Amino acid sequence: MSEIRISHQDFDPGAEIAAISSVKANIGAIASFIGVVRGDDGLAAMTLDHYPGMCEREIAAHVTEAKKRWPILALRIVHRVGRLVPGERIVFVGVASSHRGAAFEAAEFLMDYLKTRAPFWKLEERKTGSVWVEAREADDESVKRWQ
Amino acid sequence: MKILYFAWLRQKIGRSEETLDVPAANVAGLIDHLRARGPGYEAAFRDMKSIRCAVNQEHVGLDAKLGPNDEVAFFPPVTGG
Question: Which entry of A68, A145, B56, B57 is 20 to 30 Å from A98 by CA?
């Protein structure tokens, strides 16, 4: 069971985890990650732009890759788009497996690829104006460990 | 072909998509053609280090071949998650 959802709406992490754990399989571990809008440097809001269609395809391709590498029993990825204020949730990745090692690693793999390959862009709003966030080299470095 | 622009490329060019009949064999040729369409395009495609491209929703390089019915997208390096 895997579900990929791109949405303007907020998500309920508890409900997402409950959906993952409802799968009738030999689940022994669920790892989840939630990304939140950080309110540093006077950030007022952040607007997430995306390429509909390609986002889903790109994430699905990495889900397929993750399933080849780890024995994943259930998986859910939710990514929000639109205007978000500090403290709001941006992204959810939840992975269920029989053991924690696979669940942790697959969740981290999926987040690293999501950040460097899925076509989303962040526009930050501050008092001084709006600026598109630039890609971080550290994110490109993170993804290299999986290659 | 259908051409899509995202993030600051869309802002500089002033539109999110357009359909053009361009006799370009590859992505680099299409960019040369687009640059000649006006100052907004020229500004958008000034720094090629900051441009990424997808053809039919797959990441590609500038040498990727193009066909008349392709969907081509230009955007900056991604910053989701």
Answer: A145
Tell me which chain A residues have a C-beta less than 8 angstroms from the C-beta of B44. none
The domain limits of chain A are 2-144
Provide the strand spans (E) within chain B.
2-5, 17-19, 52-55, 58-60, 71-75
pLDDT digits (tens, 9 = 90+) for B34-49: 999 999 999 999 999 9
Q: What is the pLDDT of residues A125-137, one digit of tens each?
A: 999 999 999 998 8
Nearest to A121 among B54, B58, B76 (CB): B76
Q: Where are the alpha helices (DSSP H) in A1-147?
A: 13-21, 54-69, 100-117, 137-144
CATH number of A2-144: 3.90.1170.40
Give the amino acid at B24.
A
For chain B, domains (ranges, CATH) are 2-75 (3.10.20.30)
